[in-house]
Amino acid sequence: MAVSTGSVNLGQGFPDTDGPAFMLAAAEQAIANGVNQYPPGRGIAPLRQAIADHSARHYGLGYDPDAEVLVTTGATEALASAILAFVDPGDEVIALEPFYDSYAASIDLAGGTRVGVGLFGPDFRLDLDEFAAAFTPRTKLVLINSPHNPTGTVLDRAELAEIARLAVEHDVLVVCDEVYEHLVFDDARHVPLATFPGMRERTVRISSSGKTYSATGWKIGWALGTPELISEVTAVKQFLTYVSGAPFQPAIARALNEGDDWVAALRADLQRKRDRLAAGLRGIGLEPAMPRGTYFMTTDVRPLGYADGIEFCRDLPTRCGVVAIPHQVFYDDIEAGRPYVRWAFCKRDEVLDTAIERLNRGLGRTSG
């Protein structure tokens, strides 16, 4: 719809600027140097070392790069491989709802049953009592996404500590989707669940270069965990893509080793863009739920006379020349997501400004 209507696309979550120049140059050099064939099955050694070093440097979590690190075709493949590795038909998987869309597909492919625990509006906070009540004798896996897409929620230490306590008490595995680990704002801080007592040995941590280094098309992700867990994930991964991204792997290794300052600047820039878009949306009568992480924000569209986010998003391209995403596509509980819409702010300032101008004009409001 964005293409056919010439709309500004604030729906899909990818940036419209590239990552650090030194990283791009490293990929070009790798291609020129002939790094174009299959890399090792678990990823090249320098990248696995860089991933392990990154974890130790930022979180104090050490991993053996030879036995506890797996390079994957983006975080999506890592997630699918982990779910297919550990979930058998009839097993239950507790996940935070709304869900990133690949979760549902992967759980279905494994024959598992999805058990959603709501991060529902208007505050999008986790109800720990509801989370505790979700465990049953059939619970095999807990899937935690923080910072959370699409709500922008970042779980705090108290919430993480209770999740960890329950995982240990029920003796279940945990898969943590941490792809937005560095895209946190204000006073928020990403704390890996694996840092809590009893969690490292039962947790697979998954992240990706795509969000951190604005290279979503490269599809270089990774999984970290104990040798036993990573071996199981690898056993599935090798029959999905086998390997991928040979010339991108040395470039991401360099970015992980040298890119902390670039990432800090990106985070500050995204916080500024978040505030820029939020101000514009307020000007047309939409009050954002301010995200503490990711590069998405959510609004309730009922103040504009819409009861349904899908209806709003279908009208938006022709009415305003802007595209957004309805929350309902991320929910099992459709009613919980019905009035909410997700907007991506990982765009250039002029793109955000054009979107706001079009929304003002199309919705008959003027900015305040």
TrEMBL record:
Q: Which is one GO molecular function term here? A: transaminase activity
Does this UniProt record's set of keywords contain Cytoplasm? no
In this protein, which residues make up the domain named Aminotransferase class I/classII large? 8-359
Kindly list the cofactors needed. Answer: pyridoxal 5'-phosphate
PANTHER family per the UniProt record, alphabetical = FI04487P
Query: Which terms are listed as keywords in the entry?
Result: Aminotransferase, Pyridoxal phosphate, Transferase
Specify whether Transferase is a keyword of the entry.
yes
* InterPro entries, sorted: Aminotransferase_I/II_large, Kynurenine-oxoglutarate_AT, PyrdxlP-dep_Trfase, PyrdxlP-dep_Trfase_major, PyrdxlP-dep_Trfase_small
Q: What is this protein called?
A: Pyridoxal phosphate-dependent aminotransferase
Kindly give the Pfam families that the UniProt entry links to this protein.
Aminotran_1_2 (PF00155)
